[in-house]
């Protein structure tokens, strides 16, 4: 799978992280996921929220356009919110899902991923 890296200011910072900033206990929820490494090891998501984060990471790896990435952010926001409301999710997953939901909202509303100004 060819990996694409974002070109926005936030994505540039995330791409340069020397470590992953995951929610404790999660394999894919959080910035800086070393996706190719985790997939090659066959690592699985720990719960439905982590599975949604995995899909989000894959969408980011396969798409470089801001529009596609915002679509992936909205999808993760919706899946996370479903886990907040889910009757079968434990408290820890619900709390993490609430955090992910609001992080995705803030990220999109603040225009994270905006392109750097190009010199003319």
Question: Could you explain the architecture of this structure?
Answer:
This is Phospholipase A2-like domain-containing protein. GO terms for molecular function: phospholipase A2 activity; structural molecule activity. One of its GO terms (biological process) is arachidonate secretion. The chain is mostly helical. The protein has one domain. Helix content is 56%, strand content 0%. It has 5 helices and no strands. The protein has helices spanning 9-15, 35-40, 48-62, 66-85, 91-109. The longest helix is centred in the middle third of the chain and has 20 residues, at 66-85. The chain starts with 8 loop residues before the first helix and ends in an 11-residue tail after the last helix.
Shape: globular
Q: What count of helical segments does DSSP give? A: 5
Query: What is the share of helical residues?
Result: 55-70%
Query: Strand count, sense and closure of the main sheet?
Result: none
Mean pLDDT: 82
Count the E strands: 0
Q: Structurally, how many domains make up the residues?
A: 1
| SSE pattern, N- to C-terminal | HHHHH
Strand content: under 5%
Overall radius of gyration = 14 Å
């Amino acid at each position: 799978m060819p990996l694409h890296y974002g070109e926005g200011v936030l994505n540039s910072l995330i791409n340069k992280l020397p470590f992953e900033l995951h929610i404790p206990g999660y394999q894919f929820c959080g910035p800086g996921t070393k996706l190719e490494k985790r997939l090659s090891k066959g690592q699985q998501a720990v719960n439905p929220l982590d599975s949604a984060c995995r899909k989000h990471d894959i969408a980011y790896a396969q798409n470089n356009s801001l529009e596609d990435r915002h679509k992936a952010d909205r999808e993760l926001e919706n899946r996370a919110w479903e886990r907040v409301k889910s009757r079968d999710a434990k408290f820890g997953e619900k709390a993490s899902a609430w955090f992910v939901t609001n992080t995705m909202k803030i990220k999109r509303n603040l225009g994270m991923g905006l392109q750097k100004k190009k010199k003319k």
